[in-house]
Design brief:
Blueprint: E1 5-12, H1 19-31, E2 36-43, H2 50-60, E3 64-69, H3 75-85, E4 90-93, H4 105-113, E5 118-126, H5 131-147, E6 156-163, H6 164-170, H7 180-186, E7 191-198, H8 210-224, H9 227-257, H10 264-296, E8 304-308
Parallel strand pairs: 1-2, 1-4, 2-3, 5-7
Antiparallel strand pairs: 3-8, 4-6, 5-6
The chain binds uridine-5'-diphosphate and magnesium ion.
Magnesium ion is lined by residues 95, 97, 99, 201, 206.
C-alpha cells in the first residue's frame, strides 16, 4: 500500500520568531504518524528575515517547499497560492503563528480517515483576542449570516483539512475578493466541524490591522450577498413615498394656508436628508462596482517570484 501524502499550506507574513518553532512542532507531530507529508510555506512578501529562515528550512528539510510571492497579497491569496500548488491526498491549511496548534493535526486526520472530505475548525475562543475583536467578530457573523444564503460558521477559521477532491473543486473558484471560509461552505462534500481554543500567538503581533480586517469583512459580505443593493432600493422607495407626502404638505401651505415662506426648515431638512440617503445608495453601488471592476480585469491573483524545494 502506498503511503498517503498530506500537504500543509502555511501563509507567512513577517513571522520570523515563529517559523523555527512551527517547523519543529509540526515535524514532531508528523514523525509519529504514518503519512508522507510536504510543508508548503507561502511567503506573502515578508519584509523581516522570514525569507532567510524559510530558505534555510527548505535547504535542510526535504519536506519543505517555499513559494515566495512577489509582494504582500494578503492572507487569503497566500492561502490560495498554497492550495493551487498542493498535491497531497489531503491538504491542511494553518497559520504560521502557532494559533492553529500542530498537535491537533492527528485529530483532523482521524476525521478525514473516517470519511469526512472537509474538516472545518471552529474557534470556541481566542485566548489573546481583544474585547473589541471578540465583540466585532460575533456581531459580524450575525450580520453576514442574516444576509447571505450560504451559512458562514461563526468563529470559523482557516485551519482546515480538505480532501484532494475538495481542493480540486476549490481551484475552480478564481475570484479575487475571496472569503475562503465562505467559499468552502459552498463546495458541498461531507463536512465535519472541529472545535478548538486558539492559543495566543507564539510571538509577534497580528498582521491584520483594522484596515485589512474591514476590507476582509466587506469582501465577505459583498461576495455572499446582494442585500445591501436591495436596501438602497427599498430605502429609496420609502423616502420617495415620504417626499410625496412632503409635496402634498408644500402644496397645502402654498395654496390653502397661503403662507409659503416659513417652509424653510422643512426644505432644508428634507434636502439634507435625501442627499444623505442618496450618497449612501451611491456608496453601496460604488462598493459593488469597484469589485466588479477588480474582477473583470482578470489579473493574476498572485505572482510567485521564486520557488524553493521539491515539488
Ligand atoms: N498573513 C499573510 N499575509 C497577510 C497577513 C497575514 O500571509 O497580509 C498570515 C500570517 O503570517 C499568519 C496568518 O496569515 O500566518 C494569520 O494572520 P494573523 O495571525 O496576523 O491573523 P489573526 O490570527 O490575528 O487573525
Ligand atoms: Mg494569528
Amino acid at each position: 500500500m502506498t503511503v498517503k501524502r498530506i500537504s500543509f499550506v502555511v501563509p507567512v507574513y513577517n513571522e520570523e520568531e515563529n517559523l523555527h518553532e512551527f517547523h519543529k512542532r509540526l515535524g514532531k507531530v508528523m514523525e509519529a504518524l504514518p503519512y508522507d507529508y510536504d510543508l508548503i510555506f507561502v511567503d506573502d512578501g515578508s519584509s523581516d528575515s522570514s525569507h532567510l529562515i524559510l530558505a534555510e528550512l527548505a535547504e535542510k528539510d526535504e519536506h519543505v517547499q517555499v513559494y515566495f510571492l512577489s509582494r504582500n497579497y494578503g492572507h487569503q491569496l497566500a492561502l490560495t497560492c498554497g492550495l493551487d500548488n498542493a498535491c497531497g491526498d489531503a491538504v491542511i491549511t494553518m497559520d504560521g503563528d502557532l494559533q492553529h496548534p500542530p498537535e491537533l493535526v492527528p485529530e483532523l486526520l482521524k476525521l478525514w480517515e473516517d470519511g469526512f472530505q472537509i474538516v472545518q475548525t471552529v474557534r470556541t475562543a481566542t485566548e489573546d483576542a481583544s474585547f473589541f475583536k471578540n465583540i466585532t467578530s460575533k456581531a459580524y457573523y450575525k450580520i453576514i449570516n442574516s444576509m447571505s444564503k450560504v451559512e458562514i460558521t461563526p468563529g470559523g477559521s482557516d485551519f482546515r483539512l480538505m480532501d484532494k477532491v475538495a481542493v480540486e473543486a476549490f481551484r475552480h473558484y478564481r475570484e479575487r475578493a475571496r472569503f475562503i471560509r465562505g467559499l468552502v461552505n459552498t463546495l458541498g462534500f461531507k463536512v465535519a466541524t472541529f472545535e478548538f481554543t486558539a492559543p495566543p500567538r507564539f510571538a509577534g503581533h497580528s498582521k491584520y490591522n483594522l484596515r485589512k480586517m474591514l476590507h476582509f469583512a466587506l469582501d465577505g459580505i459583498t461576495s455572499f450577498s446582494n442585500l445591501p443593493l436591495r436596501w438602497a432600493f427599498y430605502i429609496g422607495i420609502v423616502f420617495g413615498l415620504m417626499s410625496f407626502l412632503v409635496i402634498l404638505h408644500v402644496l397645502y401651505v402654498k395654496y390653502v394656508a397661503d403662507d409659503a415662506v416659513p417652509g424653510w426648515a422643512t426644505m432644508t431638512a428634507s434636502v439634507l436628508f435625501l442627499g444623505g440617503i442618496q450618497l449612501v445608495g451611491i456608496g453601496i453601488l460604488g462598493e459593488y462596482i469597484g469589485r466588479i471592476f477588480e474582477e473583470v480585469k482578470q489579473r493574476p491573483l498572485y505572482i510567485v517570484g521564486r520557488h524553493l524545494g521539491k515539488r
